[in-house]
Design goal:
The protein is α/β, with parallel strands linked by helices. It has helices spanning 6-20, 46-54, 114-130, 152-164, 168-171, 188-212, 216-232, 254-268, 289-315, 322-347, and strands spanning 32-38, 60-64, 70-74, 91-94, 101-104, 131-141, 175-180, 248-249, 273-274. The protein has 2 domains: 1-23 and 287-348, no CATH class; 31-274, 3-Layer(aba) Sandwich (Rossmann fold), CATH 3.40.50. It has 10 helices and 9 strands. A hairpin with a 6-residue loop joins strand 4 and strand 5 (101-104).
Length: 348
């Protein structure tokens, strides 16, 4: 392939994805001076954490499962995560009291199509360009941080952070680990001791891997993981977020609100770091030249279909409301981008 088609089709990818698959993407990416970036895996409970910290606590309820465990859900009985499950862009949530902006980012290491990866990449870049300075919350279910347990989820979380932030040293003082759903009846000291023991086990594992690893690239990555793990061993880099201890409104739950207060306290004492170009690296990539050609062919066909079904009716619009004018401009953009895509496709 003579040149990468990525730049040529990232914008139409977004347009086609949103229109053809009926995705409603609000404009979340105006200038924001300071934002808390929430990063994590699917099972990290990052959606729940973000909304409890910055959302309307009165909208959430804890109920008893048949297993005897309590879980937090929306007032309508649906999981909080359901609202974010198919969203491939950072969602802006602002705290009503302080005005603090939180971006709940797409989950790490989710199996997505290449098209979805490009959409996520596009909006992550929009978010990065719109924010002046940041600090980070990294939630992870405490069941994945138990001594002697499986380290997989924790290591994949480290990998997600490492992939996104090339210069980890710059942000070490601004990354907070949040073990979520910690047992409501155990003491803070007991929980924290177990987390520190787990982190020490991970440190030992990584040191052994680094010592035995012959490939410099893998050794360098493991060293980054080790430095990040060691950073989380600091008492001010970890805040424990507990599970509910009884049924009822989350806003009235003493345990949850206590965790919320402690998290906010650590956040307020954690510095924002000013973003510079190159501080973040988004990672959507083409797996092969053949895949690039296949994607381009599919996009061209989707755009042709949109143009055929939409342009005739658009040109008949008489009442040029703002929405109509915006739609006409978008249609013209589609026609222009179709030509670019066809030319790019011929070069692949």
């Amino acid at each position: 392939m003579h040149s990468s088609p990525r730049v040529a089709f990232i914008i139409p990818l977004f347009i086609v994805h949103c229109w053809s698959w009926n995705l409603d993407v609000p404009e979340h990416y105006g200038p924001i001076s300071e934002a808390v970036i929430v990063l994590g895996r699917v099972w990290s409970r990052k959606d729940e954490l973000t909304l409890i910290l910055a959302g309307d606590n009165g909208a959430f309820v804890s109920s008893l499962l048949p297993s005897g465990k309590l879980w937090i859900h929306n007032a309508d009985g649906n999981r909080i995560e359901d609202a974010f499950e198919k969203i491939n862009y950072p969602v802006l949530i602002k705290d009503a009291v302080t005005g603090q902006a939180f971006y709940n980012c797409p989950a790490f290491a989710v199996q997505r199509s290449s098209e979805d990866d490009f959409v996520a990449d596009y909006f992550m870049n929009k978010m990065i360009k719109s924010v002046g300075s940041v600090k980070f919350l990294v939630p992870l279910g405490i069941e994945f941080m138990m001594p002697g347990g499986n380290r997989g989820e924790f290591l994949l979380t480290l990998q997600g952070i490492s992939n996104l932030i090339p210069d980890l040293d710059k942000f070490f003082d601004s990354i907070i680990l949040v073990p979520t759903r910690a047992h409501s009846t155990r003491s803070e000291a007991e929980i924290y001791t177990k987390i520190q023991l787990f982190l020490s086990e991970v440190e030992g594992f990584l040191k052994t891997e680094i010592h035995e690893q012959s490939q410099p690239q893998i050794r360098e990555e493991m060293t980054r993981f080790l430095n990040l793990t060691s950073n989380f061993c600091r008492p001010d880099r970890v805040v424990i977020f507990r599970e509910p201890n009884k049924k009822g409104l989350v806003s009235a739950n003493r345990i949850i609100q206590g965790s919320r207060k402690k998290t906010w306290a650590i956040l307020e004492n954690t510095p924002f770091v000013t973003l510079q170009p190159g501080d973040f690296t988004t990672t959507a990539i083409l797996k092969s030249d053949g895949e690039a050609k296949k994607m381009l062919e599919a996009i061209v066909e989707q755009m042709k279909s949109i143009i055929k079904t939409q342009l005739v009716s658009l040109e008949e619009i008489v009442n040029l409301s703002q929405a109509s004018r915006d739609f006409l401009r978008a249609a013209k953009l589609l026609r222009n981008m179709l030509q670019v895509l066809q030319e790019t496709k011929q070069r692949c």
